[in-house]
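Recall that a protein's primary structure is simply its ordered list of amino acids. Everything else, from secondary elements to tertiary packing, is in principle encoded there. The following example makes that idea concrete.
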Amino acid sequence: MKTLPLSVISILSSALFIVPSSFGQTLYSDNFDVDSTANWTINGGPSDEAANFYFDYSTVGIPSAPNSGGSTRGVKLQANQSSGIFGGVSVSPVGQSFSGNYQLRLDMWLSYNGPAPVGGSGSTQVGGAGFGTAGTTAQWPGGTQDSVWFAATGDGNSSSDYRAYSSVAPTSYADTSGVYAAGNLAGSRNGSHAYYAGFGNVAAPAAQLALFSQQTGNTGVGSLGWAWHDVSILKTGNTITWSIDGLLIATVDASTATLGGGNILLTYSDTNTGSSTDPEDANLLFGLYDNVRVSLVPEPSIGAMMGVGLTVLAGFARNRRV
């Protein structure tokens, strides 16, 4: 009697533990189609930040987010507008605390003042999201971290365009930390790395160019600016993964970090002390977030586990017949 190879047995065993059936109950959501300012806490760093929870982004030429059904209301976050002080802002929904396995998902647009690809004065800023915070302390690169969070530049003009943060990496995990899917090597956070080549090389929306003539050119390859992106942050056990448009960007082991609570956060910050001198920076330099939702990730179903097992067995049988 022939027996299954050890590798196949290992795959079948793993399937019993890692295959979720689907994303389940929605625990929280906000599409910002009504003014929800009172439902969010704003935590600012040491500079002049701003948060607008009912911003009509069509007024600056940005199209409706993919999950908005034509609506153009969202959260606009700004940092270091004119003070010349390195700082940032994070916002968290009031009274929320999530536990177990769950997914934070949202639409994100990182706007920056052109022309592209280099950008205008002060264009390099970072926006993102995370969870595990108490929701009472600003989560930004120069602050005290009480969460695991992730952020990226819009213009792609930093040596570290993709970043992951926690209490053990308050100024971001290093290129060689093993956190980034692009590899455990120098340059793994840089948008110029081939891993990120599917992003970027886009023009500003025609409606925005019509309003602001400086928004010419195409964004750099590997950058996130001037486009809507589907952001997913998934917690399964102590493993937290960050994906953009389905591409895994980073993985953090939360057991190594100190978390302040179970709330989520949206964040936006500058990368240095200098404020933009562009007269249009208020209209063009910001992070935009829409359709924020948190969903429960259920335990693996027996059907899903059996399905994976049968698929593996069928593949093995085909290989044996060849």
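DSSP finds four helices and 14 strands in the chain. The chain has one domain: 20-240+256-264+278-297.
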